[in-house]
Amino acid sequence: MYKRTEYQLIRRRLEEPRKFIQVVMGPRQVGKSTVVKQVLQDLDAPYQLFSADNVPAGNTAWVSNCWSAVRSLKENKRLDGYILVIDEIQKITNWSEAVKKEWDDDTFHDRNIKVLLLGSSRVMLEKGLSDSLSGRFEEIRMTHWSYPEMRDCFDFTLDQFLFYGGYPGAAGLIGDHDRWEQYIQSAIIDATINKDILMNTPISKPALLRQTFELGASYSGELLSLNKMLGSLQDAGNTVTLAGYVNLLDESGLMRGLQKFSIDMARRRASIPKFQIYNNALKMVYNPHTFDQAIMDRKEWGRIFESGIGAWIVSQAFVHRFEVFYWRERSDEVDFILRKKGVVVAVEVKSSAEKNTKGLGVFRDMFHPASAFVVGDGGISAEEFLSMDIRNLFK
Q: Which of 116, 153, 182, 239 is deepest in the core (most CB within 10 A)?
């Protein structure tokens, strides 16, 4: 079975002496549970895996019961250590308080029980971690599958990756476009909005939240002001409501609203957002073109190409913790500005010889980035860019 890069990281963390709770987080359907099971099967260590999938949300005692079971097994078998894994932990009400209590009890009594938590909701995991478990955990962030992973595991071509994105569960369905769309809609979009957002966050206008995502996903890779969105949405409310919904969609791993790069933070926050989905499949569900039709439409493929490159960039930003912006001044623009610890990198995506890249030179003269380059026609090939370790850009 194919093993993602995170396999080695998770294995190293579980082989280390007990120090922190390990928390694996990321968007839905990217293989978090699968890679953890691969590690557990290959480790020479006793473990117990529990899932809160079908446990009533109010049954907080369930977390303590899992701990008690593992402690009993460890003591009865006279084992030096044990690994406790709880999947879908965020579904239990006040889970972080229960985890804190049991973890601290093990620490006080010198019990060598290592703990690994997983969850499909980034929103609820991060909230629980910040509320109760400060200083007790480490995050292992996972994101959508990259082009090399989809190529090596599913024989995806570059064009297929840019169109269909990086969901392993959907890879075998691309021969039937309607079936592929249904999977992305139900298993990814509906599940994330209904289970990760609406069930856990007070939303005054659920229909507006969904419309905001659908419109933003359709415009992925393009600038779209919130005021303009108001004119396209029914019962739209105001821009503050829309901005809040975009933030929720970002926290859930569906879509971001990139801000304009500026030294002035106030100007950055007041800028028109550039919408960018985290996986191009989320854009293509709302696109009327099939794969063959999109390839033949030069203008349409240019939009798909830029959104696909952007999807990989923002997914990598989540894992490696760097900022992503766009830049525009009058007629000059740069598609993506990356920043980490003061190091700035400018990336212009060029799908054809017709696109003007003059903005890259203007940005270079104004801000003196560590590097500035084109991805696509006349620059680094998309295949090479999507295969690189993006962290090297900041060295």
A: 116
Q: Which helix (H) or strand (E) holds 43?
A: none
Q: Is 47 exposed, middle or buried (0-12, 13-18, 19+ CB in 10 A)?
A: buried
Which of 78, 33, 79 has the alpha carbon at shortest distance from 52?
33
Token pair in block for residue 317 = 């930003």
Q: Where are the domains of the chain?
A: 6-141, 147-394
Q: From CA 289, how far away is CA 245, in angstroms rounded?
A: 27
What does the pLDDT look like over 244-253, one tens digit per residue?
Answer: 888 889 988 9
CA gap 152, 154 in Å, rounded:
6
What's the pTM value of the predicted model, to 2 decimals? 0.91
Alpha helices for 49-144 (secondary structure H): 61-76, 95-108, 122-132
pLDDT tens readout for residues 314-361: 999 999 999 999 999 988 999 999 999 999 999 999 887 567 778 999
| Cα distance between residue 205 and residue 196, in whole Å | 16
Phi-psi map region of 342: left, alpha, beta (phi>0 left; psi -120 to 50 alpha): left
Residue 19 C-alpha from the chain's centroid: 26
**Is the confidence at residue 125, as pLDDT, over 70?**
yes
Tabulate helix, strand, coil % of the chain (nearest 5). 50, 20, 30
